[in-house]
């Protein structure tokens, strides 16, 4: 089945993302820099781009930069005066991402905040509270519950929240899992279910990135 998933992704990619619009140069730079190959796929990047556009996002927060691939998709959805803040714990990853963002001509729109997000989010909150209208979570899954709490504090009414990698190849349904990443997602979902300020759903996905999925939320 995985071959078929890849073949279908290739059809969609060739049909919907013309050559040069998939930002493949960023993925190539990340491979050359020996970063983990865990970027969103081109089709997933375009989905984030379209969701941000549909929302009319002017202020975007991303938690988890890696090499900046999703950052670039999101930043390209911003209007001229828009701004994106992306949080990355690893200085080397941030350095690669900064180079990629500059190559994309987006250095004026995307700012990388280096450090553990749990440590950098409070300072960001002091400067940017209640302003983000699109928030993308794609970092360490065990911290998703804390990231959700901060996302609620930082979000403007009507904000969209997307949380990636929540299926864990189906392990999210395993209540006996000892994997901290799975447990983090499970706790994240529990918090969502108890949070009256958010409407949310989840979508399972298959494709070139395997079997996974994401949560889509709306701040009332």
Structural class designation = alpha/beta
Count of the domains: 1
Please trace the helix and strand order, writing H or E for each element. HHHEHEHEHEHEHEE
CATH class: Alpha Beta
Share of residues in strands: 15-25%
By DSSP, the count of extended strands is 7
The average pLDDT is 96
**Which strand order does the major sheet show?**
3-2-1-4-5-7-6
Low-confidence stretches: none
Largest sheet: 7 strands, mixed
Please state the second-level CATH architecture: 3-Layer(aba) Sandwich
CATH superfamily: Vaccinia Virus protein VP39
Radius of gyration, in Å, reads 17 Å
CATH topology: Rossmann fold
Tell me, briefly, the overall form. Answer: globular
Counted by DSSP, the helix tally is 8
Fraction in helix: 40-55%
